[in-house]
Amino acid sequence: DADVTQTPRNRITKTGKRIMLECSQTKGHDRMYWYRQDPGLGLRLIYYSFDVKDINKGEISDGYSVSRQAQAKFSLSLESAIPNQTALYFCATSGYRGDIQYFGAGTRLSVL
Amino acid sequence: GNSVTQMEGPVTLSEEAFLTINCTYTATGYPSLFWYVQYPGEGLQLLLKATKADDKGSNKGFEATYRKETTSFHLEKGSVQVSDSAVYFCAYNTNAGKSTFGDGTTLTVKP
Prior knowledge:
Structural class of chain B: mainly beta
Structural class of chain A: mainly beta
Low-confidence stretches of chain B: none
Order of helices and strands of chain B: EEEEEEEEEEEE
Largest sheet of chain B: 6 strands, mixed
Strand content of chain B: over 45%
Largest sheet of chain A: 7 strands, mixed
Distance between the termini of chain B: 41 Å
Oligomer: heterodimer
Number of strands of chain B: 12
Number of helices of chain A: 0
Low-confidence stretches of chain A: none
């Protein structure tokens, strides 16, 4: 089984819909992250959480919200999806400062 | 501000050619440096890392040396294979615990 699992793997939705992307990890790490990947733009950080009670905005948090339900679970929500949120979304986890990040396989989201 | 600049792609090489992908960073302090690889349809995975100046990270024939004087961490491989075709990301972590990634360089290796 994968260390970091993202569901769903693919999602097509319509403008204005609320959707949730889920992430769970079995690494036992405290730190979790949500990124989006767009062609030519690399990875951009949306939100990050250093423990269950600590949630922080990243560089592109507008239009997104997160919930850290447990140490192992970190979900990303799009409150009202818009077409420019079409992207590949990755969840990641790490153990401590300066440590390696472990990524899920990604969720490909299309907003029509 | 903090940033990572990678050589632009795409890069296309023949099998057994020499590979260099340049990476420079702008950061305060002494960050840890990483190369991640993303194969088609997959998430990123660590390729190699270096945590202090002059360290050399290596894995699967790839190498990169932490050069603090030039703030660089260039990725090299002496003889690439078709299976090395992927997107390569340079990244660093600061003590603040967040990673900054480059834009990625797509490598295609032809038989």
